[in-house]
């Protein structure tokens, strides 16, 4: 068996002191996460986070920064995730757009509300990415090269 990590992207979006999270159905029950998902074949990390944010929230996302790269192992699933988290801004919202299967809703939540939901976070990366954003971690997108 060949081991490989699951490469994922996530958007850390803050507006008026609230962060955008998705409420989603998972095998572990209803969980909260940043707009996030897996990198698809031949897709750049930037394109992936734009796509996932739109599909899960109906918000158009413009990435401006890399917030961090996170290596997390889920012992329960026996999987390793390599997450690239991006910060940026919302460029619009399509209220008529249907959200991805499994997504219940997108919510703008305060940090206190997010902390109160911590037991229902999809992973410990949810709060870690927000904490890093709040700590001012913003790296240039030029750190990431998509070579075809």
Q: Could you describe the 3D structure shown?
A:
The protein is an alpha+beta fold and 148 residues long. It has a single domain, classed as Nucleoside Triphosphate Pyrophosphohydrolase (Alpha-Beta Complex). The protein contains 3 helices and 9 strands; from the N terminus they run βββββαβββααβ. Strands 5-1-7-6-9 form a 5-stranded mixed β-sheet, with helices on both faces. Strands 2, 3, 4 and 8 form a 4-stranded antiparallel β-sheet that branches. The mean pLDDT is 96.
For the biggest sheet, the summary is: 5 strands, mixed
Computed over alpha carbons, the radius of gyration is: 15 Å
Element string (H = helix, E = strand): EEEEEHEEEHHE
In CATH, what is the homologous superfamily?
Answer: Nucleoside Triphosphate Pyrophosphohydrolase
Q: Which percent bin holds the helix content?
A: 10-25%
What is the percentage of strand-forming residues? over 45%
Low-confidence stretches: none
Strand order of the largest sheet: 5-1-7-6-9
Shape: globular
CATH architecture: Alpha-Beta Complex
Separation of termini? 27 Å
Q: Indicate the mean pLDDT.
A: 96
* CATH fold-level name: Nucleoside Triphosphate Pyrophosphohydrolase
Structure annotation, total helices: 3
- Domain count, please report it: 1
The chain-level structural class is alpha+beta
Beta strands, count: 9
CATH class categorisation: Alpha Beta
InterPro entries: NUDIX_hydrolase-like_dom_sf (IPR015797), NUDIX_hydrolase_dom (IPR000086), NudJ (IPR033713)
Pfam families: NUDIX
Organism: Candidatus Propionivibrio aalborgensis
Family: Belongs to the Nudix hydrolase family. NudJ subfamily.
């Amino acid at each position: 068996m060949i081991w490989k990590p699951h490469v994922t992207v996530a958007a850390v979006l803050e507006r008026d002191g609230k962060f955008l999270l998705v409420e989603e159905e998972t095998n572990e029950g209803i969980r909260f996460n940043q707009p996030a998902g897996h990198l698809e074949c031949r897709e750049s990390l930037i394109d992936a986070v734009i796509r996932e944010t739109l599909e899960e929230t109906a918000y158009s996302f413009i990435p401006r920064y890399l917030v961090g790269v996170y290596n997390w192992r889920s012992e329960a699933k026996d999987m390793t995730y390599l997450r690239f988290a991006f910060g940026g801004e919302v460029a619009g919202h399509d209220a008529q757009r249907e959200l991805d299967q499994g997504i219940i809703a997108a919510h703008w939540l305060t940090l206190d509300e997010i902390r109160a939901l911590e037991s229902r976070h999809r992973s410990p990366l949810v709060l870690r990415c927000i904490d890093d954003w709040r700590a001012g971690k913003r790296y240039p997108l030029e750190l990431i090269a998509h070579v075809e």
